[in-house]
Design goal:
Elements (H helix, E strand, L loop, with lengths): L4 E15 L8 E17 L3 E6 L13 H12 L5 E7 L10 H16 L6 H16 L7 H6 L2 E7 L2 E6 L5 E7 L5 H6 L7 H20 L2 H7 L6 H4 L6 H10 L4 E4 L6 E5 L2 H18 L3 E7 L6 E9 L1
Parallel strand pairs: 3-4
Antiparallel strand pairs: 1-2, 1-11, 2-4, 2-5, 5-6, 7-9, 7-10, 8-9
Length: 318
């Protein structure tokens, strides 16, 4: 871009994400190629944040009640110069789906705004700003959705205090996701979890997390498959999702490596080594929800390598 031009408006797409990846509660997350939200952000001469929604989800436009607005305000609070933003949001990731809808809004907004600020902030800082939006949505500052949304691929959140986010190798896997048309709020799904776990259960869980990360690094499908087991969170949360056990069993029989609850649910995801298996898994899932009489959306997609991406930008001479 010509040095005498400055970007005034940018449109980005922010990917759906899957948190936890079965055994990695609050520390593992993965970005999907689709579905994606689209956000247009413009820098303004006036201070403050203006939000317009172009979808049917009836989300707040008051910045202090909107996850993207809260994330942008956290960014402005850290920026040393006065600035303001206009945000136009067109969401395709349904809130309450378990596919990181709030993370897509918060992370997409701050990544776009950072482009307008000439990349003033680091990716790690952007995650911190986006976490402010997650706190509004769920009551907890967690990064397992916003980190892969910003970085792309699969991320390990080793620590939040201080932040330590590690992008992992991205295996060439296909992802099948089915979203039953019910809503589970993240805050509600957290409230039903046990506050304490047995040491023997924790040891099993630690082994599975280490195995899953190693499986991703080595692209070892067999290790990935046998590590995608959760004995702490999934047994509790799965009772909120109709047909969960049957879908998981039938998906593995259809060829999936493994999978489980996407975030806090109700979406269910499965990883497969090839597209044929992913489609077979999709058909198996659809058959079960047809029989149960439950409406759903279903996706066969891949892991997004790049997270939030620029769709277009507008410049003006300065």
């Amino acid at each position: 871009m010509n040095a005498k031009n400055r970007i005034s408006t940018v449109t980005v797409s922010a990917p759906a994400t899957i948190a936890n990846l079965v055994c990695g509660f609050d520390i593992l997350g993965m970005a999907l190629e689709e579905p994606r939200d689209f956000l247009q952000v413009s820098i303004t001469d006036s201070l403050g944040i203006q939000i317009t929604n172009q979808d049917d989800f009836d989300l707040p436009t008051d910045p202090v009640q909107n996850v993207a607005g809260v994330a942008l305000q956290a960014m402005l609070n850290a920026y040393p110069h006065p600035a303001g933003f206009n945000l136009v949001s067109h969401k395709q990731i349904k809130p309450g789906s378990g596919l990181g809808s709030s993370a897509a809004s918060a992370a997409g907004a701050v990544v776009a705004a950072n482009i307008l600020l000439d990349q003033y902030f680091s990716s790690e800082q952007l995650v911190q700003f986006a976490m402010a939006g997650e706190e509004l949505a769920s009551g907890v500052r967690h990064a397992d959705n916003v980190a892969p949304c910003v970085y792309g691929g699969i991320t390990l959140i080793r620590s939040l205090l201080p932040p330590d986010i590690i992008p992992l190798s991205v295996p060439e896997l296909f992802v099948t996701v089915i979203h039953p048309q019910i809503e589970i709020k993240t805050s509600d799904a957290r409230q039903i979890l046990r506050k304490n776990v047995l040491l023997k259960d924790a040891i099993i869980q630690w082994g599975n997390i280490a195995g899953l990360v190693t499986g991703f690094l080595k692209n070892d499908h067999a290790l990935i498959s046998r590590s995608m087991t959760d004995i702490i969170i999934e047994p509790v949360r799965s009772i909120l999702i109709p047909g969960f056990k049957e879908i998981k069993t039938s998906s593995i029989e259809a060829g999936a490596l493994g999978g489980g609850i996407a975030g806090s649910g109700p979406s269910i995801f499965m990883l497969s080594a090839d597209k044929k298996a992913a489609i077979d898994v999709q058909n198996s899932m659809k058959d079960i929800y047809h029989r149960l009489g439950i409406d759903y959306n279903v996706y066969v997609t891949t892991i997004s390598q790049h997270g939030v991406r620029i769709e277009n930008e507008s410049v003006y001479p300065i």
